[in-house]
Amino acid sequence: MKNVELEKEETSEKSYSKWQWFLFVVLIPLLFAITLTLVIMTVAGVNVFDAAKKYGEKIPGISQFIPDEQKASEQALKDSLIEQKATVEEKTLQIKQLKQELENKQKEIDSLKKEIERLNAEMETKQQSTEAEREQEQKQTIKDIVKMYESMSAKSAAQIIPELSDNDAVTILSSLNSEKAADILEKMDTKNAAKYTALLTKRVESIQGQ
């Protein structure tokens, strides 16, 4: 029984001695060397973490545990560029659509202008035609009135004409033949005869002046 206990104690002492040997001979010097190296690199201005990442990427099995910040940054930049490009293309498409709408509106405006010009020309033509028709009707009316006064006796005409406006009276008298007009003026009183004679003379002078 005592032999077994002694063997256990000896085994435990051997294990403890090996652990002490590893601690003092390997681990502590290694940690000291690593610490000293980090201090020297820091003082020398070397980025310890970047260096560790750089060399760690070359070691199989370790590089996969080191985050690739550069790749992530490049990917983020690419994604941003793609998004910006899509935005630019969308804005360009919107500008093209607005430009096309503006061109269509301009075409509509030009078409409306032409339609307005056509309607104005048509209206002017109709107005001229109406004026010509009205003038023709007036001439026909004057002819009918003149015929009526020509068939009327000079005495009756001399009594009616002074009741008309000066313009109408002169128009009728100037449209009658000179013999009929002279007979009518002769049957008027001196005052009216003189007035219409003067107006007829003025009318003739105005026509000759044109």
From TrEMBL:
Alphabetically sorted, this entry's keywords are: Cell projection, Cilium, Coiled coil, Flagellum, Membrane, Transmembrane, Transmembrane helix
Positions of transmembrane segments: 20-49
Instruction: Return the Pfam families for the record.
Output: MgtE_N
Coiled coil segments of this chain: 81-140
Q: Does the keyword Transmembrane helix apply?
A: yes
Record carries keyword Transmembrane:
yes
Record domain Magnesium transporter MgtE intracellular: where: 148-200
Highest taxon above the source species? Bacteria
Q: What is this protein called?
A: Flagellar motility protein MotE (MotC chaperone)
Q: What is the lineage of its organism?
A: Bacteria, Bacillati, Bacillota, Bacilli, Bacillales
